[in-house]
Every structure is written in structure tokens, then in C-alpha cells.
Write a structure and sequence with these properties.
Keywords: Hydrolase, Manganese, Metal-binding. 37% of the residues lie in helices and 19% in strands. It is of the alpha/beta class and 441 residues long.
């Protein structure tokens, strides 16, 4: 069996690299994944998966941090010019760039779901010869959009896994769902798919990431440190006035935002775990001699648990309101992103660990839980929903060499990780019936 699988993986290795480099070249940031989504849909359809797309898998009003209607239209046109498969485009139009592909084996058994994300970052890619994507001519052709987190690799892994599982369909039982998620960056997309119910029937769930500081060849079977987070844009609106002639007629939005910024950073830490708050952007004012009538703040809170994040966020709302009262200005808060904290299911991590140890010699090191790194991930919404329904969930990290840190203009990774990931995930899927039978004894 393993020899057979090795041969199948060897046969798709080149294609994995082609997919990854193609997605890298045509990088599309969150909710703009029009070209990517059409190519993914086309391939999965060709393989014989049954597809649900767009509004069937994304709840419109649960999307966060959605770009403007105009920007969505422009990007859709851009995607057409860049080779999107137009027959699939209507499903994704308007920022509904998600896909769930199901392989129903027709045999009784559990439902296993994998989630990969497809979005790039709002970032300009390095264009110097030390950067391999530039030197080898697959750097992003879209300004201010770059795959600097490895999601191009995740999408390629998802497609590679789809091909392999189709080849081994007669060995599988139950249903396999492949979830291709938009807008993970800024934790904006997952909630809308969870609220559309895409994992409500899922018994076993896996989300993956490559890199994250884990060395090449190492697998973390259950990352256990995600911070819950809430991301908001706050706008203050006051009244402009002549700063010299009629200052008393002004309502100062800049001062409200400045006072809020200081107040937000003064919110207490929490004794029960990690907490964070950051005002990352503050823009205000129009001219030197005008009382500023407008201010924008981009704020995020984080907490080691959902409760700690809610503590910080609750206080933040009080500070924002208080600052508005101090300056007699109006304010508005828009939710731009959110994620939960989540822990992997121990029994599921044990099974993944055992499978990787026994059947994937390409992995030089397999560990159950990763070193603490404090980030957030909206895959946690899927994990928490699956666990709430009695299922098991985990988050896997496939280590790889990086040329620069995540979200850096020179980010690139060792593409050998793609085949290793596909092999590991395929192995878990093929051997899942044993684990499922054991659980029900
Ligand atoms: Zn990222
Ligand atoms: Zn990422």
C-alpha cells in the first residue's frame, strides 16, 4: 500500500509545484480569490467531486472585512483577464469565493473534512534576484497582493489531496469534504462558512498550515495555542471648524481617537492568561488650521481564551465610547475579523501522530504539540463547531524552510513540503476506518 501511495505522490509532485507557482504568480487577497476559486472548482469538478460553492457555503452577512462593491467588481474583471475559468465565476461573484468539494464513497462511515485557505496578503512582493519567485519568474503580478503566508501551497496541497483520494476511492468509507476557504488573513472568512453549516455533519476535522517556524520535515500534529481575537475599525465623526477663528464650533474627532488610543493601551492585563490590545492605525484630520472632524482607528484585541478576549474587548468598547463623550463626537464600530481560541482533540492528535510516525518516513520528526507561538487563526471556528457536535478536530503544521518570516515581502518556502503534506493527509484518510471502528467498539 505504501509503495503504491509513494508512486502516486511521486507522480503529482511536479503538478503540486506548478499549482503553487501559478497561485503565487496570480496572488489574490481576501474575498478577491476569483481566479483561484474558479481554477480550484474546475479541477475538483473534473475529478468527479460534488461541489457546493459561493452562497451555498458562505453566509453573506457573516463575512467580515469585506472590500467595497466597486473593488470586488474590479478584481473580478482583473481575474477574467488573468485566466479565470469564467463558467464558474457567477458562483463566486460579489465576494463569495469559497468551495466545499465532497467525495461520497457510498459506503457507511464517518465524514472527514480538511480545510485549506486560498488568500494572499495585502503586501508588495520583493522584486530582487535574491528572492526566488522573482528570479524564477513566478512572483506576484498583482500589485499589493502577495502569497507571503504559504496559502498558495495550502491550495496546491488541497488539490493534490483531492487527486490522490480519488485514486484510492475504493479503499475509503464515508464522506470526505475538502473546504477551500477565502479570507483567512485578518480572520475574516471562516465564520461565514461555519454559519452556512459546512461542518455541521463533520466527525473528524483537520486544518493545516505550512512553516510557522517549524523546521523542514517536522510535523506538529496538534497546535494548541491560538489566541481568540476581535478586529474592529472605529470611526469618529465630529465637526470641522476654523482652528483660529471659531475653535469652539469644532468637535474634535482626532482628540477622541488619540484619547481612545491611550485609554485602550491602558486596559489591564488578565491574570488568567495572555492578553493583547493594539491600535495599529490612527488616521485623522484634514489640515493644520482645521479642527479635525474625522478619525479612523484600526484596533485588535486578543486573549488566550475566549473569556479573556471578551474581557479586553468589553473594556475597549467602554474606552471608545468614553473618548467620544469627552469630545462630543459620534462614533461607529465595524467588525473586521474575529477568531476563537481552540484546543485540538487529544485522541485525534494521537491517531494522527501514530499514522505520521508509522507511514510517513519523509517526516524526520513528528511531535504532538507545537511550541507556543501566539497567533490567531479562524480555522478555530471550524474546530469549535465540530467539537461542539461531538466530533474531533486538530490543526497540523508541516514545517518547511523559509526564506523570510511570514507576511514578509521575501517570504518563500521549500516546496518539498507539499508532497509530504499530501502524503500525510492521504495516509490519515486511508487509515481512518480503523480509528473510527476502534472508537465505536
Ligand atoms: Zn498569515
Ligand atoms: Zn497563514
Amino acid at each position: 500500500m505504501q509503495t503504491l501511495l509513494n508512486e502516486s505522490i511521486r507522480q503529482i509532485a511536479g503538478q503540486l509545484q506548478n499549482w503553487r507557482r501559478d497561485f503565487h504568480h496570480f496572488a489574490e487577497s481576501g474575498w478577491f480569490e476569483f481566479r483561484t476559486a474558479t481554477l480550484v472548482a474546475d479541477e475538483l469538478h473534473r475529478l468527479g467531486y460534488s461541489l457546493k460553492m459561493g452562497k451555498e457555503v458562505i453566509k453573506a452577512d457573516a463575512r467580515m472585512g469585506l472590500p467595497s462593491v466597486q473593488a470586488l467588481q474590479e478584481q473580478e474583471q482583473r481575474a477574467i483577464q488573468q485566466g479565470a475559468k469564467v463558467e464558474w465565476l457567477p458562483h463566486f461573484s460579489g465576494g463569495f469565493t469559497g468551495i466545499v468539494a465532497t467525495l461520497d464513497t457510498g459506503k457507511a462511515g464517518p465524514t472527514l473534512a480538511f480545510r485549506v485557505d486560498m488568500d494572499a496578503l495585502d503586501l508588495n512582493e520583493d522584486q530582487t534576484h535574491v528572492h526566488r519567485p522573482y528570479a524564477e519568474d513566478f512572483y506576484s503580478c498583482n500589485a499589493h497582493m502577495m502569497h507571503a503566508c504559504g496559502h498558495d501551497g495550502h491550495t496546491a496541497i488541497g488539490l493534490g489531496l483531492a487527486r490522490i483520494l480519488k485514486q484510492y476511492e475504493n479503499r475509503l468509507t464515508g464522506k470526505i469534504k475538502l473546504i477551500f476557504q477565502p479570507a483567512e488573513e485578518g480572520t475574516r472568512g471562516a465564520k461565514s462558512m461555519v454559519e452556512a453549516g459546512v461542518v455541521d455533519d463533520v466527525d473528524f476535522f483537520i486544518a493545516i498550515h505550512i512553516g510557522l517556524g517549524i523546521p523542514m520535515g517536522e510535523l506538529v500534529c496538534g497546535k494548541d495555542s491560538f489566541l481568540a481575537t476581535t478586529k474592529i475599525d472605529v470611526t469618529y465623526r465630529g465637526a470641522a471648524s476654523h482652528a483660529g477663528g471659531k475653535p469652539e464650533e469644532g468637535k474634535n474627532a482626532l482628540l477622541a481617537a488619540a484619547q481612545a488610543t491611550v485609554g485602550l493601551h491602558a486596559i489591564s492585563h488578565h491574570s488568567k492568561g495572555i492578553s493583547r490590545i493594539n491600535v495599529g492605525v490612527l488616521q485623522a484630520g484634514t489640515g493644520r488650521n482645521v479642527i479635525p472632524d474625522y478619525a479612523l482607528m484600526k484596533v485588535e484585541t486578543r486573549g488566550e481564551t475566549n473569556e479573556i478576549n471578551e474581557f479586553i474587548y468589553g473594556h475597549a468598547l467602554g474606552v471608545i465610547e468614553g473618548a467620544a463623550k469627552m469630545q462630543n463626537v459620534e462614533y461607529e464600530i465595524e467588525l473586521m475579523g474575529a477568531a476563537q481560541s481552540s484546543k485540538p482533540s487529544p485522541a485525534w492528535v494521537d491517531f494522527i501522530y501514530q499514522q505520521a510516525q508509522q507511514h510517513v518516513p519523509e517526516l524526520s520528526s513528528v511531535v504532538k504539540s507545537g511550541r507556543q507561538s501566539v497567533g490567531s487563526e479562524d480555522a478555530t471556528y471550524f474546530m469549535e463547531r465540530v467539537k461542539a457536535n461531538g466530533g474531533l478536530a486538530s490543526y497540523l503544521i508541516f514545517g518547511t524552510e523559509l526564506s523570510a518570516g511570514h507576511h514578509h515581502g521575501q517570504f518563500d518556502f521549500n516546496e518539498d513540503v507539499l508532497a509530504i503534506a499530501v502524503k500525510t493527509l492521504a495516509t490519515i484518510t486511508i487509515n481512518l476506518p480503523d480509528f473510527d471502528a476502534e472508537r465505536h467498539q
